[in-house]
## 1
Amino acid sequence: MAITDWPESERPRERLLKHGAAALSDAELLALFLRVGVKGASAVDLARTLLKHFGSLSRLFAAGRAEFSGIHGMGDAKFAQLQAVLEMARRALREEIRDGDALASPRAVRDWLRLKLGGLPHEVFMVLLLDAQNRLIAAEELFRGTLTQTSVHPREVVKLALSHNAAGAILAHNHPSGVAEPSRADEALTQALKQALALVEIKLLDHFIVAGAAEPLSFAEKGLI
């Protein structure tokens, strides 16, 4: 049955307009993005198929062009639209932490990192550099692969921070396993970077671990910095 044949109170668009986007399920939100389904399947059915295939919204968002377009009913046009929506969301969140106090907007920082790193199949290490008012100056990806003290060099982090005349830094990396708990290697690396940055009077403010759609873990909140 087409969505237009559903009772009006059950249609995703009408429910969003009446109750707000937060009232909709992941499948309903995705269905609004898709707009139409395929033969024999409504947009909601197609959305459920996508979520079942990828396992979560974050993994769907991180999917490559070939995998996404390989799903029946998807293609380059839908892939391009999805990437445009995601990039607009990232830019809006980045503007929020660039124009205001990043430490006063922890939700924006977490949401931006989750959109940036949450669904990646490989480990990525990033540094967010802040000015004296804790406004974002730059966000740089420094490394891809298994995170160790030998893979992330403190001198490279210090060099990057000095090049931007940063007053503070926030570290971030993802755990593709989906488990946000820090390893001993994560803790050792954090302390090494904290000490290296302190030598040039740059304060390490936090280190976030992003694991899928879960809430990013904050080292500062855990008392690990």
## 2
Amino acid sequence: MNIEYHKWYSPNIGRDMEFKVYGHAGKPVVVFPSSGGSFYEYEDFGMIGACRPFIEDGKIQVFTVASVDKEAWLSKEHSFQHRGWMANNYDRYICNEVTPYIRERTGYHKFMSTGCSMGAYHALNFYLRHPDIFDQCVALSGLYDLGFSVGDYMDDNVYYNSPVHYLPNLEDPWYLDQYREGDLIICAGQGAWEAETLVDTYAIRDTIEKKGIPARIEIWGDDVAHDWPWWKIQMPYFLNLLGY
């Protein structure tokens, strides 16, 4: 398997940002890390191994990016305003730096977003905010209401980064028409540490059903925990369902 490490200075973040690439061809898959995780955790926790057949067969090419969550929505020190500002800087990093690189490298115009836990939040949020970049999403065990970070506080940066809040009010056909042509998969279990993710998953399910957005929302059994062993099962399963 082709594996590469890359790093460059990001003017949007103000420091070097790292990522890894796995594979030589196929649909670009952008992986966002879990809560406080790194760009190399997808490999360390066995997810690259679980997806190896798809990567080695040239069906997908995986790009595991870093996050700034500890300075944004997972920060315990910064103000709510700073968290939103940093989140928007990260949005520009992905859209204006990582996206052109992947497009030039692969020839693909649109990608898949995916992630587990906090990575699932990013995967869904980027899919919804940027359907011109992401036309597929596999979100595993995510929280989609930024109340987990800011409580009842609300401003524009929070609202427009909290899918549970902005999606019900979104009526722009430019977005909705692209969602209806995309592939959206959201999954949560009913086991340990999944209770809060179930609440947000049901909320998103209700909204997309009302808007006529096709999606596959799967709720797995009460033995399915918020943990890597289950995500290693889920990701290949959903790649197969998507036809890879």
## 3
Amino acid sequence: MAYVIAALLGYLFGCSHMALYLSKLSGVDLRSNGTGNLGASNAMVLLGWRAGVLTALHDIAKGSLAVMAARWLFPEAPLVGFVAGSAAVLGHMFPFYLRFRGGKGFAAYVGMTLVLHWQFTLCIVVVAILLTLVTDYIVTATITTVVAFPIFAAFVYGWGAMLIVCVPSLAMIFKHRENFRRIREGTEVGFRRAKSGKMRMK
């Protein structure tokens, strides 16, 4: 029962969307422009870097808070933080009140790992920044993170933890398939172009 409650709690945390709030305030529909996702990357592309940073911080916080709340409520359940954090990522990606069309989950995923093992997060953030600067694509950092953490979790926490975090990891890889298609076609918006200002809407 602890894991069921943790999953529901985490999912509800994940359903909070700063990108949606900013979208309504600005009058720019993020779900109909850019990549069509309610995430920090699309907020940065369409609304500017300040909106992107605010969205990223919010999404990191909800991933972290989901893990902390579940651990506080159920300290006796060893993997409850992994369940709540994974559910928060899935809630971000598939919010029930938006017809399951949310963001791609990277910031919420980082927030989850930050509480589960901050040393891993520190290392992977450095790697992610370097990969983004070298390739100019945030997606390369995202995929590296979601592949590395399940492997890391298997060695440090066991196979149960790995299987739990594999669920949001696989969902995120699937959600980023369009990014890889755009990279092949040369139409993907690079990090340098995104941070330079707002893009023109469709």
